[in-house]
Amino acid sequence: MTDGTVFQTNLSAGSGATRKFDVLVRLIRAAQPISRTEIAARLEIDKSTVSEYVKSLLRTGIVTDEALFTGDSGRRSRALVFADDGSYFIGVNLGVRTTQVGTTNLVGDITEIDDFQTQSDPELVLRRSKELIEQIFESRGRERCRMIGICVPGLTDGDRRKLIYAPNLNWRDVDIAGYFDDLGDIGIVVENDSSAAAMYEARLQLRSPGLEKSNDFVLVRSGTGIGVGLVIGGEVYRGAGAARGIAGEFGHMTIVAGGKPCVCGNRGCWEKYASAASAASLYLGDRPLRPNESLPRFVEIVGKAENGEIRAQRTLEKIGEYLGVGIANVIMGVGIPRVVVSGRLVYGWRFIEKPLRDAVKKSIVGSMKGWTVEAGEPVGAAIGGALEVAADEFLRRLEI
To answer: Is the CB of residue 227 less than 8 Å from the CB of residue 152?
Structure first.
């Protein structure tokens, strides 16, 4: 997602060399192999300016200039790619149900994903995560690890080291980064999972010029709960001042006054009506579970809907309506008209999309031109987001 005016401002602003390189580096990483000519066209800057910036990147050794053969003529062109020097990043996604640990490199290859059930005791979860990280060190070398990114399903502190509160896990004031400090001189960054997912989605958007619809978007990720990531000017917005780290917690805004009780202590929260997890209670209604009956999983409800079951279809349509109500509120609240929906809800998009759009149209947003809601990734952003956090933070800290 690029916008020429915004990118040109960023690249020419006197805010430090690292800041100037941020957008350029992200584009190369997302769209590699990519030529200087394409970079200049997509960022709307002079090719000579691109060449000057690239020189500094080439000196670091993290980017190389390769000769690629194109077309039947065998003509060679030069393209920029990140060097695969054996270094890697570790990502830990502390999910409400499952925790994942994996690795990636600057080329973007995701490997060595392992997972285990997330337990209620944070000490047990962090201990098992550290064990898996140590196993990666043994096989790939501790010295080659450049950064560790950790995603958490809740509020983080402004320094991106601690979990303040994760309602769906009932974890409070957990020093996540501090638990891993004894792993050695390796940077550790903790990020809200929705913000991380937004970073992951932003890189996907940069892969193709055809996806550059807007430099700003809202990511609404729905699974066990609902999280919202805000991307403004190509950067994930995390709040300001004392509120830094809590921007985007829209999943716990009230959309039904006096509604269903939420784990956060409030009633009528958005995620109690529009998350993938809420589908089970909407499907069953007010009746209690029968003996030996378990709550249906979201994918099971989607399967029933696709097989023609009316109750399942109505359930997904109702979720779409509630989702649209919340999305309209988010658009009005942040002033960003483009929304990408990701997470398990995407599996039911066929039934969710129309009532979602109808609900947005009924709000004041519906009278505006230019608002869009689209489906993103149903899976992948979980561990992908954690890995993106690690790689992005490493690139931010480069001294160029």
So the answer is: no
Question: What's the CATH number for 88-198+382-396?
Answer: 3.30.420.40
Give the pLDDT of residue 380: 59
Cα–Cα distance measured from residue 90 to residue 191, given in angstroms and rounded to the nearest whole number: 14
H-run or E-run covering 201: helix 193-206
Residues forming a β-bridge with 90: 103, 148
Residue 295 is given by DSSP the state: P
**The two structure tokens encoding residue 212:** 């550059």
Q: What is the pTM of this model?
A: 0.83
Task: Identify the band that residue 10 occupies on the pLDDT scale cut at 50, 70 and 90.
Answer: very low
pLDDT band at residue 365, thresholds of 50, 70 and 90?
A: very high
Angle made by CA atoms 241, 203, 107, in degrees to the nearest 5: 120
Counted residue by residue, the chain has a size of 400
CATH placement of domain 4-82: 1.10.10.10
- Do the two domains 4-82 and 211-378 of this chain adopt the same fold? no
Structure tokens at 397: 């800290």
DSSP state of 118: P
Residues near 61 by Cβ (< 8 Å), separated by ≥ 6?
83, 85
Nearest to 193 by CA among 221, 167, 169: 221
- What are the tokens at 100? 């994942």
Phi-psi region of 184 (alpha: psi -120 to 50; beta: other; left: phi over 0): left
**Residue 75 or residue 391, greater confidence:** 391
The percent of residues above 70 in pLDDT, for the chain, comes to 86
Listed by start position, the domains of the chain span: 4-82, 88-198+382-396, 211-378
Q: How does DSSP assign 237-259, residue by residue?
A: E--SGGGTT-TT-GGGSBSSTT-
In this predicted model, which residue has the larger pLDDT, 216 or 145?
145
| pLDDT, the chain, mean | 85
Q: Yes or no: say if 167 and 154 are a contact pair by the CB < 8 Å rule.
A: yes
